[in-house]
Write a structure and sequence with these properties.
Layout: H1 9-14, H2 26-35, E1 49-53, E2 56-60, H3 71-88, H4 92-106, E3 110-111, E4 115-117, E5 120-126, E6 134-139, E7 147-151, E8 165-167, E9 173-178, E10 187-192, E11 197-202, E12 205-210, E13 216-221, E14 230-235, E15 244-248, E16 255-260, E17 266-272, E18 277-283, E19 292-295, E20 303-308, E21 311-316, E22 324-329, E23 339-342, E24 350-355, E25 360-366, E26 369-376, E27 381-384, E28 393-396, E29 406-413, E30 416-424, E31 430-435, E32 447-455, E33 461-469, E34 479-482, H5 497-503, E35 508-512, H6 522-526, H7 534-549, E36 558-563, H8 565-576, E37 583-587, H9 593-599, H10 607-610, H11 616-625, E38 638-644, H12 652-665, E39 672-677, H13 688-705, H14 717-726
Parallel strand pairs: 34-35, 34-36, 36-37, 37-38, 38-39
Antiparallel strand pairs: 1-2, 3-5, 4-5, 5-6, 6-7, 8-9, 9-10, 10-11, 12-13, 13-14, 14-15, 16-17, 17-18, 18-19, 20-21, 21-22, 22-23, 24-25, 25-26, 26-27, 28-29, 29-30, 30-31, 32-33, 33-35
Organism: uncultured Thermomicrobiales bacterium
InterPro entries: AB_hydrolase_fold, Pept_S9A_N, Peptidase_S9_cat, Peptidase_S9A, Serine_Peptidase_S9A, TAT_signal
Enzyme class: hydrolase
């Protein structure tokens, strides 16, 4: 890894952006123009292609950019990268300074909280100077020596991503998966932890769980396109080609997954789309059998299953948009045998649960914020576990052990570092197990957080979570406003060591909770999808207008950022209100909605969120907001658009075509950049060093847009003066949709290092 004190030229100008850049300020931009060193931007050839859509013909001049095997396509992407490289040159000192700050904060020796598992403690740790985590264990006894299980730094690949790992109950074998391209095609490896050797590999597989016999692995196979379509059973010592398929899914928009109840008495399979699934179960003492249907497939209904003390617990949104908890005797229970344990509540969406031999815990939201409750049985009454701050995120930690009286949660807020708590479920007493390391001298009292509400076009109040420096907070400041607004995905108020670098320089961070997410319940999601998708766009614009009107910032110093579906959001608001923003960062954007749905390998899987363009009503609606089709001859803000050549979710050509059209039709002098990761996917490049390089580039461009391009941290008064001069500016349920995923599939999530949000 590059020394934290010296970024190489390759890192300075050749690495990929993970979540984008803003453009140089007017001062820097004028220097670029005057220098005559920056080449003209690349102009993609227009090669009109008549495209037949279900509702008519259309001409697409940039359809040719959709072929990654065409040398002209690669040459165009390389030219765009070179153009950005040249434009970045005047900011190299700032990038180096930001890189050094980031490395000092995130490249440290650290270790996750060890998790007990049948006589062993499992954890991951990082070492300063290494890009990736090291998965380890030791016996749960004093003085036990560490055993290194998987050192991702020893893998020879430019890209390395592990989505999960899990040990067997007898602690003999470890299953883990790796993606070495960024395409999200994973291979499962099985490690013999006694010998330290990988003994078997299963290609094209993603998501797995061990059976209680410690010799049988159930996994989801990636057979066609980009989805998992089969659940297979693998016996150690046999060839993967002979693995039995126990569940097959033929519906193109559905994928399959597998998990286990926490007590390991049942294997649980599901087949689902974004808002629909069906559940099947297989008793652990009949692992050679066929999964039995428990919750049938019904459009718009999603459920998750657990087992405790001889009863099934079903968290479901059937006739209960915010979820209700049902119970019934385990087995082939008819629907009439299910009883309600926790009633549906319009103001309290439930998202997951954790079961213990003597305790039951549910997760959800109250007033838009994440909440944890213990459940008094049999009445089903809820007791909230309370925390002190008004704005925060709390979520399930690593709760692997069924016979336990202790609950682990991870707590964070915009000013509180990630904190692992262990809660005694008998007394609700909290014990801090670990708090995220922060730089010496970090003082949370220097910052303030606020929850604001912006009135949208239809009168709906849209929440905003804001964090800024306390000193001078009554004055307008440069502000970055982030948004996503889709798929029921929530934008949470979290702590980020990286973002503090911006905040300490006088930049306010505002996270919008617009419709399309599920912060306020299922209705909040439904009100921002399908034929109501535009509500999220108007919400985001309303948030920006509110922050300007209330004096938190001004349009000439307001930046917007979002990725994937949030990139679609960025494209829509750029077309609708380009005058509102100084800069827009659109990362891996879903910029051509109709082409994505009809030609992307995973397009059909997204129709539950966006609609099927074969139907005229959806085609016409999508055509009215899709960023690519709605580019106009107008002046746009400074824009940075990022993509990944191996992106299997939002293909690179969505961004490339959009930028090409913006270059052709856009007017004005603000810069427009396209950055394509040539060896990475939806998440960009991998590793701590790449993260620091990418984030340094992002922050350099944002700060230069705000007129804060000096390497040293600005004092609080500097950005205010610049503004005045400018004048204007999951739980453990197997099979549920959002925060409650099958815990057996993702045991590594709570015990590995997470890079801070940018």
């Amino acid at each position: 890894m590059t020394s934290p004190t010296q970024m190489t030229r390759r890192h300075l100008v050749g690495r990929t952006l993970l979540v984008g850049l803003a453009a140089p300020s007017s001062v820097v931009a004028s220097r670029l123009k005057a220098s005559a060193q920056a080449p003209p931007p690349p102009i993609a050839d227009r090669k009109p292609t008549i495209q037949a859509y279900p509702n008519g013909l259309a001409v697409d001049p940039y359809r040719w950019l959709e072929d990654p095997t065409d040398p002209e396509v690669i040459a165009y992407l390389d030219a765009e990268n070179a153009y950005l490289k040249s434009a970045m040159a005047p900011l190299s000192d700032l990038q180096q300074h930001l890189y050094d700050e980031l490395i000092d904060r995130i490249d440290i020796d650290d270790q996750s909280v060890p998790v007990p598992w049948h006589g062993y403690l499992y954890y991951s740790r990082s070492e300063k100077g290494l890009d990736y985590d090291i998965v380890c264990r030791r016996k749960d006894e004093p003085g036990a020596e560490e055993e290194i299980l998987v050192d991702m730094n020893a893998i020879e690949s430019d890209y390395v991503s592990m989505s999960g790992w899990e040990p067997t109950i007898d602690n003999r074998f470890l299953a883990f998966d790796l993606d070495l391209t960024g395409e999200e095609f994973y291979e499962i490896s099985i490690l013999d932890m006694d010998s330290g050797n990988v003994i078997e590999r299963i290609p094209r597989a993603w998501g797995f769980v061990w059976a209680p016999d410690s010799r049988t692995l159930f996994y989801a196979a990636q057979v066609d396109a980009r989805r998992t379509s089969q659940i297979r059973r693998h016996r150690l010592g046999t060839e993967p080609a002979s693995d039995a398929t126990i569940l097959r899914e033929d519906e193109p928009g559905f994928s399959v997954g597998v998990g286990a109840t926490k007590d390991r008495r049942y294997i649980v399979t599901y087949a689902g789309a974004f808002d629909t699934n069906e559940l099947r179960y297989l008793p652990a003492d009949d692992i050679d059998g066929t999964p039995r249907l428990l919750a049938e497939r019904t459009p718009g209904v999603s459920s998750g299953l657990e087992h405790r003390n001889g009863r099934f617990l079903l968290l479901t949104d059937r006739d209960a948009p915010n979820n209700t908890l049902l119970v019934a005797p385990a087995g082939d229970a008819p629907p009439t045998s299910w009883e309600t344990l926790i009633e549906h509540d319009d103001e309290r969406p439930l998202s997951g649960l954790d079961v213990f031999a003597d305790h039951l815990v549910v997760y959800g939201r109250s007033g838009g914020f994440t909440t944890v409750w213990t459940v008094d049985e049999p009445a089903g009454s809820l007791n909230q576990i309370r925390f002190d701050e008004a704005i925060y995120l709390v979520q399930a930690g690593a709760n692997w052990t069924y016979d336990s009286d202790k609950l682990r949660v991870v707590y964070t807020s915009p000013v509180t570092p990630d904190t692992d708590y262990e809660i005694d479920l008998r007394t609700l007493e909290k014990t801090v197990l670990k708090r995220q390391p922060v730089p010496a001298g970090y003082d949370p009292s220097r910052y303030i957080t606020k929850r604001l509400y912006a009135p949208s076009l239809d009168g709906v109040e849209v929440p905003i979570s804001l964090v800024t420096l306390r000193e001078g907070a009554d004055q307008p400041r440069p502000l970055r406003m982030d948004g996503y607004g889709g798929y029921g995905v929530n934008q949470e108020p979290v702590f980020s060591l990286a973002r503090l670098i911006l905040i300490d320089r006088g930049v306010t961070i505002a996270t919008t909770h617009i419709r399309g997410g599920a912060e306020l319940g299922r209705w909040w999601w439904d009100d921002g999808r399908l034929l109501d998708k535009k509500n999220g766009f108007t919400d985001f614009i309303a948030c920006g207008e509110y922050l300007v009107a209330e004096g938190y910032t001004a349009s000439h110093y307001l930046a917007a950022m979002g990725g994937s579906n949030g990139g679609l959001l960025m494209g829509a608001v750029a077309n609708e209100r380009p005058d509102l923003f100084k800069a827009i960062v659109a990362n891996v954007p879903l910029a051509d909605v109709i082409a994505f749905l009809l030609r992307s390998p995973i397009g059909s899987a997204n129709m539950d969120e966006l609609g099927d363009p074969v139907e005229a009503v959806f085609y016409d609606y999508q055509l009215s907001y899709s960023p690519y089709q709605n580019v106009e001859s107008q002046a746009y803000p400074a824009m940075l658009v990022t993509s990944g050549l191996e992106d299997s979710r939002t293909p690179y050509w969505l961004a490339a075509k959009w930028v090409a059209r913006l270059r052709h039709l856009g007017t004005g002098d603000e810069p427009l950049y396209l950055r394509t990761t040539m060896a990475g996917g939806h998440g960009g490049s991998s590793g701590v060093d790449n993260f620091a390089v990418d984030t340094a580039e992002l922050y350099a461009f944002l700060l230069s847009q705000f007129g804060l391009a000096e390497p040293a941290a600005a004092d609080v008064g500097a950005p205010v003066a610049a503004l005045k001069a400018g004048g204007a500016v999951a739980g453990s349920v197997a099979g549920t949709r959002t925060e409650a995923r099958g815990h057996a599939m993702t045991r590594a999530d709570a015990v590995r290092r997470q890079l801070p949000p940018q």
